[in-house]
């Protein structure tokens, strides 16, 4: 049985620029991610990225495959550059044997569904199933499916 770890959400206040010397990942988050990667049985570590409370991207670390995958479903250079900087920083900081790979396989069709896309892309990284229909006509259904999963899980396992 493989295990997936969902790391702390990384909130980035700005898109990366060429002149930025700051580390793209806080040390505490980086250390937590590296610890999760080293855990026995962990196959995937997910790191959702939030930019200015307006856009979501994701970095997925596939432990067995030794790959750090990153994607922005709008495929915009500033977000891809920021996600690449985070993925590369993780590689340099302890995952040297991992390949850093951009994913551009599903393109978001609007300016507001990035969170839904990131959730479903994360699910696809963890559960190998046939690709989901993520077209404009299916987004309402995907939103309700996510709402049902969250609501049902909370109802079934109240805290």
UniProtKB/TrEMBL annotation:
Does the keyword section mention Membrane? no
List residues of the Ubiquitin-like protease family profile domain: 1-125
The UniProt entry, under InterPro entries, shows:
Papain-like_cys_pep_sf, Peptidase_C48_C
Which sequence ranges are marked TM in the entry? none
- Give the Gene3D superfamilies listed for this entry: Adenoviral Proteinase, Chain A
Annotated GO biological processes are:
proteolysis
User: Where does the source fall among the domains of life?
Assistant: Eukaryota
Pfam families reported for this sequence: Peptidase_C48 (PF02902)
Enumerate the GO terms in the molecular function aspect: cysteine-type peptidase activity
Q: Does the keyword Nuclease apply?
A: no
**Keywords, comma-separated and alphabetical:** Hydrolase, Protease
Q: Which family does it belong to?
A: Belongs to the peptidase C48 family.
How is this protein named in the record?
Answer: Ubiquitin-like protease family profile domain-containing protein
